[in-house]
Amino acid sequence: MLPFLFTAGLLTAGITNAGTGRALPANAPHGYTPQEDDCPSDAPTIRLASSLSDEETSWLRSRRQATLDPMRDLLGRLNIRGLDTDQYINNHRNNVSNLPNIGIAVSGGGYRAMLNGAGVLEAFDSRTPNSTSAGQLGGLLQSTTYLAGLSGGSWLVGSIYTNNYTSVNDILAQDTSDDDSGDIWQLENSIFEGPDSDGIQLFDSVGYYATLVSDTDNKDGAGFNVTITDYWGRALSFQLVNATDGGPEYTWSSIAEQGWFSDGSAPMPLLVADGRAPGQKIVSDNSTVYTFTPFEFGSNDPTVYGFAPMQYVGTDFFAGETSTDQCVTGFDNVGFVMGTSSSLFNSFLTTINNAQTAGLFSSALQDALTAVLRTIGEDDEDIADYPNPFFGWRNESNPNSGDQQLTLVDGGEDLQNIPFHPLIQPLRHVDVIFAVDSSADTNASWPVDGSAPGWPSGAAIIATYERSLSDIGNGTDFASVPDVDTFFNLGLNKRPTFFGCDASNLSSPSPLIVYMPNAPYVYNSNVSTFDLDYNDTERNAIVLNGYNMATQGNGSIDDQWPTCVGCAILSRSLDRTGTDVPSVCRDCFDQYCWDGTTDNSKPDPYQPNMALEAVDVTSGARRWAGSVVGAVGCAVLSGLMVM
Ligand SMILES: *[C@@H]1O[C@H](CO)[C@@H](O)[C@H](O)[C@H]1NC(C)=O
Ligand SMILES: *[C@@H]1O[C@H](CO)[C@@H](O)[C@H](O)[C@H]1NC(C)=O
Ligand SMILES: *[C@@H]1O[C@H](CO)[C@@H](O)[C@H](O)[C@H]1NC(C)=O
Ligand SMILES: *[C@@H]1O[C@H](CO)[C@@H](O)[C@H](O)[C@H]1NC(C)=O
Ligand SMILES: *[C@@H]1O[C@H](CO)[C@@H](O)[C@H](O)[C@H]1NC(C)=O
Ligand SMILES: *[C@@H]1O[C@H](CO)[C@@H](O)[C@H](O)[C@H]1NC(C)=O
Ligand SMILES: *[C@@H]1O[C@H](CO)[C@@H](O)[C@H](O)[C@H]1NC(C)=O
Ligand SMILES: *[C@@H]1O[C@H](CO)[C@@H](O)[C@H](O)[C@H]1NC(C)=O
Ligand SMILES: *[C@@H]1O[C@H](CO)[C@@H](O)[C@H](O)[C@H]1NC(C)=O
Ligand SMILES: *[C@@H]1O[C@H](CO)[C@@H](O)[C@H](O)[C@H]1NC(C)=O
Ligand SMILES: *[C@@H]1O[C@H](CO)[C@@H](O)[C@H](O)[C@H]1NC(C)=O
Ligand SMILES: *[C@@H]1O[C@H](CO)[C@@H](O)[C@H](O)[C@H]1NC(C)=O
């Protein structure tokens, strides 16, 4: 069976790009430096998390309507025999809350996660050539309400949204031309080297380091605490944001001002980070999980249970009100937000003192990083520092209510490496979550000796399930999932599996989970988290692998797969409207739903085989063969092993 040969198509298809101008340089002309100004007469406040914001509620009215036609087209193509899906959508058009409400969650795991997730999004995106032909899933993204990303997954989501909601296909197609200007995801240049000087950036490596330092200095000079995450976020932007110097003036809140977002043409992007005070450790049942939406920043957890307006994050608040008449804007730089969600990776920058990387860094950057490390200490080098919007807020439950600063870390640090959290909030009424898991849980000695490293085990979804059972879950009921050994023994970590199929087995409404674990379809996409540079061939192979995971090899692994995706989408909705489940869907659920069976015997060594014919990525050598793997030894980085 042949894999869907998408790479070849990419190279030859004459794809038009999305045009010029990206996101909004809302903080121009101040670059990366946040600005203080008189607060608006309608001063920003913190609100309780007991409802959705007015902005989100009103946006949802547009978005849910905008998903109906793409959803009708998609379901029509998925061939759900025994249900007239056109009729079904039409019958419920007047009450969209009856119809499916879709979320997508893209896990962390560095570039592996960004690229594997990109393949899934490409498969789900009707803008991808041929993605709306038989056996394909194009249009699922257009039918989706929320798209969540965490850490490496936040790079994917953030990059698309800050670049005028471009498509993965356009990003990859862009760099097939000789002209490098406008290319992003240039991963052959590691974060240490910086961009090619003929690319979208103006600088050579020296200029690149200098701008990381001066931007961060300017923020520091304006009175804000800076951490390594500032340098990291700025560096990331050079790979992810298509604007001069990685768009220092582009803000996360400005996404809300973009026509394609405000008119409901795109899903809402949600990025996730965890709260962690210096010196603390967190696990899933004691972390406070924060979400960045284009409108707001805050947490639904019973600890903080509040949200601040995104545009004014950086402002000093006390007890829910601004504490002066001065409001800060421009703090929510897109790279800083993505860097916060992925802050564990900023430890890469601190490897500067080892022999392999030392020569690549400017001494100014080395000095700057060393100075930051002196004040925050190595164990907390992964922290991002925010003026705490929740200072004096909910003292009775908020562990940070007494602190003027709020320190956030990588969203995967509490082991919930898939950003389910914002999607399982009952207020959002999500029906189905397509969950892409690119965690690297296995290693040569785990789950048993002789296993292949770098593949998921189910640990990330288990962490979310366990959290839902503890007090901090706060009503976020979550599908039951089995233990890790069962994941291996039943192969649930290797093929798509539906969890929570039977809504009546849950005590309150919660989404059906379509779990999509990273596995080898056409390429061994278990690349090391420490791999910091990828040539375009390998980059595209990982994306292609994700594409084949999403489509199950263009339906060649199971020609019922597209139908089963449709059944998963419809499941909760059919339940709500009391509609008979077509027998083709019952067959799907028999095949793809976890039925509650467990087998916690010791698994065999995990050695997954390629499901389809492998793509060839050879010829030529990698430009930066000496990876930093051997050099990395600090405590924080060991956390990267699973991410
Ligand atoms: C799309 O499908 C057509 C017809 O099968 C094929 O000729 C073309 O190469 C495909 N394009 C891509 C980008 O795969
Ligand atoms: C980046 O922007 C340039 C010019 O604004 C545009 O031509 C190019 O297509 C963009 N690149 C991507 C990947 O969207
Ligand atoms: C953004 O993308 C849309 C759709 O592809 C395109 O029509 C528009 O010109 C782009 N806008 C800017 C400012 O680049
Ligand atoms: C929409 O349908 C739901 C049941 O799914 C019902 O509770 C609600 O009242 C309906 N709304 C309208 C406006 O008919
Ligand atoms: C969270 O739980 C872990 C494991 O029990 C513990 O080590 C840590 O101190 C706890 N952190 C907080 C903030 O309570
Ligand atoms: C969630 O937590 C808040 C704050 O403690 C509380 O008011 C609310 O009732 C909780 N919701 C559920 C469903 O438990
Ligand atoms: C900066 O961090 C220190 C602790 O390291 C804290 O006391 C102070 O409030 C922070 N300042 C701001 C502006 O957040
Ligand atoms: C909440 O805590 C803050 C800071 O510790 C304190 O100043 C404030 O008075 C407290 N508020 C209430 C209502 O107890
Ligand atoms: C392998 O993974 C297990 C489980 O996460 C972990 O305890 C162990 O330290 C890992 N071993 C190595 C060599 O990374
Ligand atoms: C149904 O719920 C029970 C109790 O939460 C759980 O043990 C069981 O695994 C669930 N069954 C399925 C198929 O999810
Ligand atoms: C990836 O997994 C395959 C087996 O599925 C294994 O042969 C290979 O060594 C692993 N690659 C890396 C980089 O660990
Ligand atoms: C790209 O990288 C892969 C993986 O390291 C390597 O096997 C391949 O030879 C490289 N291809 C080119 C064209 O450089």
TrEMBL record:
It catalyses: a 1-acyl-sn-glycero-3-phosphocholine + H2O = sn-glycerol 3-phosphocholine + a fatty acid + H(+). Residues 38-599 form the PLA2c domain. GO terms for cellular component: cytosol; endoplasmic reticulum. The keyword Transcription does not apply. Residues 1-18 form the signal peptide. Its EC number is 3.1.1.5. Coiled coil: none annotated. PROSITE patterns: PLA2C. Pfam families: PLA2_B (PF01735). It is an enzyme of class 3 (hydrolase). Keywords: Glycoprotein, Hydrolase, Lipid degradation, Lipid metabolism, Signal. GO terms for biological process: glycerophospholipid catabolic process. GO terms for molecular function: phosphatidylcholine lysophospholipase activity; phospholipase A2 activity. PANTHER family: CYTOSOLIC PHOSPHOLIPASE A2, LYSOPHOSPHOLIPASE 1-RELATED. Belongs to the lysophospholipase family. This is Lysophospholipase. The lineage of its organism: Eukaryota, Fungi, Dikarya, Ascomycota, Pezizomycotina.
